[in-house]
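Structure in, sequence out. Go:
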C-alpha cells in the first residue's frame, strides 16, 4: 500500500509518497542538511580550500602538471600560435559518458570535453564543489586510474585533461576556435553515417560555458547537436540562457540539498549518488540490483530514473525525478561526508 500526501516546499508542489519497499525509502541515511545559504557558502568555501591544498600536496598530481606544462610550452610556436598536432584532441569519449548508450532507441554518440576537475590542473574548474565530490571524483577512475602509467612513465589520460585545462585558461581564444572545429567536424562525420551527436561540455568539470563560450551552443544548435551536463551550481540552472539547447541536471552533493526545490521549479531532475552496488547481472549488461521506485531526500519524495542505463539525460521523459546513480570507483566507498546517499 502507498500512503500519499501533497505538500508545498519553498513554493514547489510535490507529491509525497511513502512506499513499503526494502530500500530505505522514507529518508536516505546520513544526509547533511544545509539549512541556510550561509552554511552552504561556508561549507563550499572550506571545501575549495581543502581541495586546493590536497591537490598541491599530491606528488602524482604535481608530476602530471609539470609534464602537461612542458608539452604545452613545446607546442607553442614563436608567433604564439598553438601547434595542435603536438597536443591531445579536445573532444573525446570515455566510459563515463558512453555507458550503455545502446539502451536508448536512438542512433546516438555522446562526445565530451574532459578538463581536469577542481584544482588538479592548478586552476579551479568546479565552483560548486564539496568535500565529498572532490574526494570521490571520477577523474581517477576507469582509464584515469593512477596506476595506469604508460611505458614512458607518463599518465596519458591525466596529463591530457590537465593540458586541455591549461589551454582553456591560458590560450582561450585558440582553444575556442579549435573546439568549435572539432565539434563541427565530428557532428558532420556522424551525420553522414546517420548518427546523431550529443555533447557534454563538462565531463569532470563545471565551467560556465553558457556565459564564457555562448558560440559553442549556437554552433551545436545549427548542427542539431544536443548539449547537456550535470550541474552543482544552482545559479547556472536558474540563469541558463540556453534551456532548449543545454540540458542541465542538478547534481546533489552533501552540502547543496537546500536547492532541490529550486532545481525542480526550473525543470531540472536531481542526480544522486547512492550506495546501490554496481554488480552486473549474469547477462553482463544489466545491473544485479535495481533502483527503488522512489526516494525521499530531505523530506522530498520523487519518482526515480536509473541514471546508469545511459548518460543522455536529455532523453529522460520523467520530470521531477531523482536520477539514481550507483557510486563508482574505490574512493566513493570510503565516503564519510554523506555525498553518497545510503539507500541500499
Amino acid at each position: 500500500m502507498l500512503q500519499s500526501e501533497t505538500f508545498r516546499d519553498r513554493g514547489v508542489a510535490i507529491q509525497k509518497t511513502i512506499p513499503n519497499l526494502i530500500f530505505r525509502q522514507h529518508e536516505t541515511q546520513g544526509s547533511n542538511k544545509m539549512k541556510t545559504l550561509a552554511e552552504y557558502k561556508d561549507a563550499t568555501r572550506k571545501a575549495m580550500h581543502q581541495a586546493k591544498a590536497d591537490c598541491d600536496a599530491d606528488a602524482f598530481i604535481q608530476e602530471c602538471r609539470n609534464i602537461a606544462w612542458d608539452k604545452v610550452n613545446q607546442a607553442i610556436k614563436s608567433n604564439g600560435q598553438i601547434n595542435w598536432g603536438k597536443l591531445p584532441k579536445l573532444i573525446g569519449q570515455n566510459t563515463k559518458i558512453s555507458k550503455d548508450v545502446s539502451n536508448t532507441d536512438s542512433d546516438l554518440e555522446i562526445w565530451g570535453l574532459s578538463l581536469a576537475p577542481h584544482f588538479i590542473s592548478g586552476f579551479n574548474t568546479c565552483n560548486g564543489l564539496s568535500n565529498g565530490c572532490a574526494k570521490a571524483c571520477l577523474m581517477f577512475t576507469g582509464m584515469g586510474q593512477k596506476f595506469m602509467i604508460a611505458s614512458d612513465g607518463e599518465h596519458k589520460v591525466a596529463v591530457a585533461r590537465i593540458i586541455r585545462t591549461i589551454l582553456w585558461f591560458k590560450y582561450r581564444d585558440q582553444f575556442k576556435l579549435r573546439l568549435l572545429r572539432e565539434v563541427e567536424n565530428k557532428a558532420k562525420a556522424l551525420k553522414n553515417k546517420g548518427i546523431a551527436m550529443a555533447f557534454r561540455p563538462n565531463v569532470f568539470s563545471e565551467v560556465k560555458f553558457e556565459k564564457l563560450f555562448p558560440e559553442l551552443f549556437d554552433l551545436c544548435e545549427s548542427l542539431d547537436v544536443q548539449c547537456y551536463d550535470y550541474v552543482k551550481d544552482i545559479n547556472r540552472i536558474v540563469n541558463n540562457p540556453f534551456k532548449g539547447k543545454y540540458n542541465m541536471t542538478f547534481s546533489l552533493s552533501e552540502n547543496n540539498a537546500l536547492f532541490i526545490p529550486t532545481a525542480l521549479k526550473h525543470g531540472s531532475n536531481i542526480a544522486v549518488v547512492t550506495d546501490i552496488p554496481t554488480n552486473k547481472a549474469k547477462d553482463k549488461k544489466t545491473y544485479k540490483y535495481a533502483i527503488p521506485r522512489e526516494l525521499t531526500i530531505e523530506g522530498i519524495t520523487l519518482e526515480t530514473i536509473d541514471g546508469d542505463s545511459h548518460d543522455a539525460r536529455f532523453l529522460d521523459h520523467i520530470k521531477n525525478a531523482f536520477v539514481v546513480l550507483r557510486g563508482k570507483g574505490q574512493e566513493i566507498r570510503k565516503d564519510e561526508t554523506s555525498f553518497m546517499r545510503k539507500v541500499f
